[in-house]
Amino acid sequence: MALAATLLHNAYFCGRCCRHKALQPLLGPLLSDSLSKSYSSYRRPGSQPEKKTTWQNVDLSFKKSIEVLKTQLGMLKKETEDHLAGPEGQSLTHYMLEQTRVVWEFRSQEDLNKWVISSDVEIGGKSEVYLKLGRNNQTALLYGTLNTEVPRDGETKYSGYCSMRAKPLVGSFARKKYYDWSNFNSLYLRVRGDGRPWMVNIYTDPYFSHQKDDLYNYFMFTRGGPYWEEIKIPFSKFFLSSRGRVQDDQHPIWLDKISTVGFTIGDKVNGPFQLEIDFIGLLNDRAHTEEFAYETYEKNPPL
Amino acid sequence: FILMLSLTLGTMITITSNHWVTAWAGLEINTLAIIPLISKSHHPRAIEAATKYFLTQATASALMLFSSMTNAWSSGQWDITQLTNPPSCLLLTAAIAIKLGLTPFHFWFPEVLQGSSLTTALLLSTAMKFPPTTILLLTSHSLNPTLLSTMAIMSIALGGWMGLNQTQTRKILAFSSISHLGWMTTIITYNPKLTLLTFYLYSLMTTSIFLSMNSTNTLKLSTLMTSWTKAPMLNTTLMLTLLSLAGLPPLTGFLPKWLIIQELTKQEMTTTATIISMLSLLGLFFYLRLTYCSTITLPPNSSNKMKQWSIKKPVNTLTPTL
């Protein structure tokens, strides 16, 4: 997950030219290498040796910078218009009345480009993961093989995970933008899995870096059948974890500043996996009254 | 309870001080006392809000101390009202602007209010604004009026603009606070009494809004829309208070705006007066939208949050009608 994040950072630093490479997991570590070097000089077995540093990639041509400036100003203008229109760019009545919203659909290659896939190849494992458009360009197919063979570097104990994560929204001049899902209370997924359990992760990008590993997770159990499944996961069920460890002090997720959503498979079973996603949406389930599913009692009661 | 006591103590110390060090000490006591209040719920956003608050307020206090020390160095005395050294006046203006949340130092304010609970947000926007305002009042004759007016106009503009499509009530109130502070700062060099008047009326109105929102537990716009089923009387008074905050004529909120515009025209600053009244139109727009949401339209759905049904206290339905 952390390397996927560095991969994203690098994708912005190197300009948009490298974005199409983000889909291939083997080249991913190549891009993330130069940034991971700034943390430690130990090179994980799965990542290739550094060939070209980030600063050598910089393109200083004047024409290109004018074009970039024009695109950014265009984005800024659009953002201002959206700001005037209402919350999230739609009118207030739309915001007031909306009960469902489709956030991610998979109808073209651009929709696929909004996602990043990664697997344990980053740490030297042998799983493979690929993302492509499904039949008739109606779905996205995340498929691959999970391999739990542990990389022999003396410190890794477990291996075997593959994941797909949405890229965070970027506003004009590379500012961070967030989703505001406060109107909704469940995640609605239309998927067709193969019976394997998946984990859904939501990342709310915090301001300070000591919270950057905070992730809200919950499970998605798929049936294997040829029929489509509509899975509703209420946000009250998401629990907090950090770097994979479930935290003691649980609290409900705040939906007003969501950055990315991801799917991970890591169920310790060697073999192929497949997940076909039609769309990912949000639902305001009126029948759902639960505030938070874990530990709602007061932890330090006054005596 | 001790924290509330420390807050009052800090405020009193600053208000009644005429030595720079006591003023600074009071401000520090306030900052330190409110940090645990902000981070009480142990949510990461609350902790983030507390960290941001601490960092900004600590910088502002340090700047204030620098300004008082340079003033003492050059003039040999520590009296608050005798601020003579120009760089220290500038530093002090910057420090107070950071403390209050005037543009361009406003960035911490909406995030901090969003991360804290509603009552703490109330304290942050009314009680914590009081000591810096008193310091501004005491030193207002020696501060640069152009700088203050520029910051004030920018605050009103920004408070109105950014508040336009917020969906979280606390952020909306943060931006309304920023624009009201802008109104207060425009008039401070000409007639400080009007600043005090604006501040009192603003605190009263904001208190009633926060307390009404607290009893219906509305943290976002959609909850505000469904509060008419829970306490209809509260809803109507909330609408009146919101319109009062916006500054519509028959309600109390219009009074400070009218007097400020009058004073500005007396001081031959008609362009400023026109600009700020135009900009407060932006604010009016989103206040109207809030009232539209809460009272004028009756949404077809009602909230399914269990928390909303617990009536904490019958809130002051009379204060908005003042």
From TrEMBL, chain A:
Residues 104-277 form the NADH:ubiquinone oxidoreductase intermediate-associated protein domain. Its main location: mitochondrion. One of its GO terms (cellular component) is mitochondrion. InterPro entries: Galactose-bd-like_sf, NADH-UbQ_OxRdtase-assoc_prot30, NDUFAF1. GO terms for molecular function: unfolded protein binding. Keywords: Chaperone, Mitochondrion. As part of the MCIA complex, involved in the assembly of the mitochondrial complex I. Belongs to the CIA30 family. Part of the mitochondrial complex I assembly/MCIA complex that comprises at least the core subunits TMEM126B, NDUFAF1, ECSIT and ACAD9 and complement subunits such as COA1 and TMEM186. Interacts with ECSIT. Interacts with ACAD9. At early stages of complex I assembly, it is found in intermediate subcomplexes that contain different subunits including NDUFB6, NDUFA6, NDUFA9, NDUFS3, NDUFS7, ND1, ND2 and ND3. Interacts with TMEM70 and TMEM242. This is Complex I intermediate-associated protein 30, mitochondrial. It comes from Eolophus roseicapilla (Galah cockatoo). The gene is Ndufaf1.
From TrEMBL, chain B:
One of its GO terms (molecular function) is NADH dehydrogenase (ubiquinone) activity. It catalyses: a ubiquinone + NADH + 5 H(+)(in) = a ubiquinol + NAD(+) + 4 H(+)(out). One of its GO terms (biological process) is mitochondrial electron transport, NADH to ubiquinone. This is NADH-ubiquinone oxidoreductase chain 2. Its EC number is 7.1.1.2. The gene is ND2. Belongs to the complex I subunit 2 family. It holds the Pfam family NADH_dehy_S2_C. It is a multi-pass membrane protein. It comes from Eolophus roseicapilla (Galah cockatoo). The chain crosses the membrane at residues 20-38, 50-70, 90-109, 146-165, 172-190, 196-213, 234-255, 275-298. The keyword rRNA-binding does not apply. Residues 17-282 form the NADH:quinone oxidoreductase/Mrp antiporter transmembrane domain. One of its GO terms (cellular component) is mitochondrial inner membrane. Its main location: mitochondrion.
